[in-house]
Amino acid sequence: MVSVSEPEGPAAAGPVVGVDIGGTKTSAGLVDPSGGLLAVRTRPTPATRGAAEVVRTAAELVRELAELAVPGGAGAVTAVGVASAGVIDSGRGVVVSATGAIAGWAGTDLRGELSRELGLPVAVDNDVHAHLLGEQWRGAAAGRRDVLLVAAGTGIGASLLLGGRVRHGARSVAGHAGHLPVAAAAGRPCPCGGRGHVEAVAAGPALLAEYRRRTGAGVTHLAEVALLAEAGDSVAAIVLAEGASALGSAIGGLVNVIDPEIVVIGGGVAGCGAPWWDALREAVRAEVLPALCDIPVEPAVLGGDAALLGAARLVLEVET
Length: 320
Prior knowledge:
The structure is a single chain. The chain is an alpha/beta fold. It folds into two domains: 16-133 and 305-313, Nucleotidyltransferase, domain 5; 143-299, 2-Layer Sandwich (Nucleotidyltransferase, domain 5). 35% of the residues lie in helices and 19% in strands. The chain has helices at residues 51-69, 110-118, 127-138, 199-202, 204-215, 222-230, 234-258, 274-287, 305-313, and strands at 16-21, 25-31, 37-44, 80-84, 87-89, 94-97, 122-126, 147-152, 156-162, 165-166, 262-266, 297-299. The strands form three sheets. The chain has a five-stranded mixed β-sheet, sandwiched between helices. It has a five-stranded mixed β-sheet with strand order 10-9-8-11-12, with helices on both faces. Strands 5-6 form a two-stranded antiparallel sheet. Strand 5 (87-89) and strand 6 form a beta hairpin. The two termini are 32 Å apart. The relative contact order is 0.16.
């Protein structure tokens, strides 16, 4: 156990540890109060062994970093922030619902269990919200107070910062942008069980499946499709552009409602290159109101570090 008295509210000083729990890997970073990422440790997530093992793995990573901060461990790390997949009640630190990527994850009292394991104060939020906090602290949206972040990967999620605060919604579900209806997805089944949602045509698996359907090619990763588009494969370029246009249309609608200072795009699909980005930005411009036509639409810049920094920020006093 790391011995430290629990502060009231966020820790005023550090270092702290930010933890990012995903279905395949769990990472932890030692972060100083200025946002410096001092060290990172990663292990496979024991997803099939249940929530208790996942929490134990996270705690072991925190202890490794505490030992690194001060040999002997005690007293250096003041708090732990956690970013997790799933719908997270950040007020209680509980996983409200989740996919089956981690066995038994829904219902886990993540804050309570990890705090008892470590003897440290713990704060918890959804991983996309943590990505936004990281990018707004030290990344593409640094210093902005009204930000829309969209994460396009296996699914499509979003997070909204208004007035310097992440908005979670009344039921902690805010940010599920992948389930906005778009014309391009009409009738298409969505992983959520609905139909016609943008995730059905713009997420990574949907783009890969569409390219395979049109060509019969045996490609297995979206990165291959992006390389083919770059090499002049017209079908690959069209598939990427169509998916990006559908997503851009949805984002443009959100921009009309929210009026953010900047839109930041992260996730693996955002690495698909110029055909994807050109179509995305064109679709956003076509959808937004004239007063919003100059909205910046920029790539996230922190990569995997964003969630670690954002998680750490949950337990640090950071001026926004």
